[in-house]
Specification:
The chain is α/β, with parallel strands linked by helices and about 325 residues long. The chain has 12 helices and 11 strands. The protein folds into 2 domains: about 130 residues, Glycogen Phosphorylase B (Rossmann fold, 3-Layer(aba) Sandwich), CATH 3.40.50; about 180 residues, Rossmann fold, CATH 3.40.50.2000.
């Protein structure tokens, strides 16, 4: 049997499909697994041993459809279920199973704060899409495979971080899913251990501010000694913009703890079974995309009648106060 899986974006959503890929490949006999995604995200899947072939969506959906038609699939598993994937299913005219997106239920929650969503992680909902194939969830969680060339050696980090560190993912796709810089500073101080900042090129300005705030200076040696007496141990190393996605994943793999917004690297951290401290702003874990099958702590402000305000996010708080992040409480203890 030749199966095509469709999921075009984005980082976290693609990582969350990996149990479907793995269980199809390991539980069905003589199955060939193909995966179609955007070209920008194909590197997430290239090392996955359960995928036989990746098909990339570039600028032309028609070109992709023509390419897929030649492959002659027996079944399509549509884990995206949007207009483009519906066009593909229509044009290929083969049997398909499609993921239920629950858009109506999400709209009720964001618009009227009526929660009709199932108490189920999105990974398990993805698995329901293939239940008719008698494929069952295993106990292995998420998958993420790093190319050998992108594995980061620990000696790339400062000596202060080589015996252990917390990774802090500072970026998010939307501003309402991202802490203000003042809250990031507070969180770093609260972590009170060596911290490695992770994010993309678009996060470099914020990372620079964090790095500068915690920079140790010889001219303030007396001040630093005072901090040491107070037990202040936060040392920030800025890796933002210096690593590609797989290299950032490698640093997460080597970290002791991961602090992150609701973002793709959170799910990569879950694939490595890291203890995760997950920070939520305008979105909520009730959407079903909290860390999967790993130890995690949720930071969210549940004392607001405006949250969630969106299933995705905004460039700024619609109410103007951003209380979901500004009044968030960081209550945790890492130990030694």
């Amino acid at each position: 049997m030749k199966i095509l899986i469709l999921r075009f974006s984005s980082i976290g959503d693609i990582v969350l499909t990996t149990p479907v890929v793995r269980t199809l490949k390991t539980q069905l006999q003589e199955v060939e697994i193909h995966f179609a995604t955007k070209a920008a995200y194909s590197s997430l899947l290239r090392e996955n041993p359960y995928i036989d072939k990746i098909h990339e969506l570039g600028d032309s959906l028609g070109d992709l459809v023509g390419h897929l038609r030649m492959a002659r699939f027996d079944l399509i598993i549509d884990l995206h279920n949007n207009l483009r994937t519906r066009i593909i299913k229509s044009r290929l005219s083969v049997r398909s199973h499609s993921f239920g997106k629950l858009n109506w239920e999400k709209w009720l929650l964001t618009k009227f704060k009526i929660n009709k969503l199932p108490n189920m992680h999105i990974v398990d909902r993805y698995m329901e899409t293939v239940a008719d194939l008698d494929v069952k969830m295993d106990n292995l969680g998420l998958d993420f495979f790093i190319p050998e060339k992108d594995e980061m050696a620990m000696d790339w980090l400062p000596e202060s971080h080589q015996s252990g560190f917390a990774a802090l993912v500072i970026g998010a796709k939307f501003k309402t899913k991202q802490m203000p810089i003042t809250r990031m500073i507070e969180l770093c101080d609260r972590i009170n251990k060596p911290v490695v900042l992770l994010g993309g090129k678009e996060d470099e300005a914020v990372a620079g501010e964090l790095e500068e705030f915690f920079r140790q200076r010889d001219s303030t040696k007396e001040f630093e000694e005072g901090l040491d007496k107070l037990g202040k141990k936060t040392l920030v190393f800025n890796a933002v913009g210096k690593c590609n996605l797989n290299q950032s994943a490698s640093l997460i793999k080597q970290s002791n703890w991961v602090f992150t917004h609701d973002t793709g690297l959170m799910h990569i951290a879950a694939a490595f079974k890291k203890p995760i401290f997950s920070v939520w702003g305008n979105t909520v874990p009730a959407f079903g995309m909290y860390p999967y099958r790993t130890q995690f702590t949720i930071f969210e402000n549940n004392n607001l009648d405006c949250r969630p305000c969106s299933k995705i996010g905004y460039d700024q708080c619609p109410k103007g106060h951003f209380k979901c992040m500004n009044e968030l409480v960081f209550d945790f203890y890492l130990g030694e």
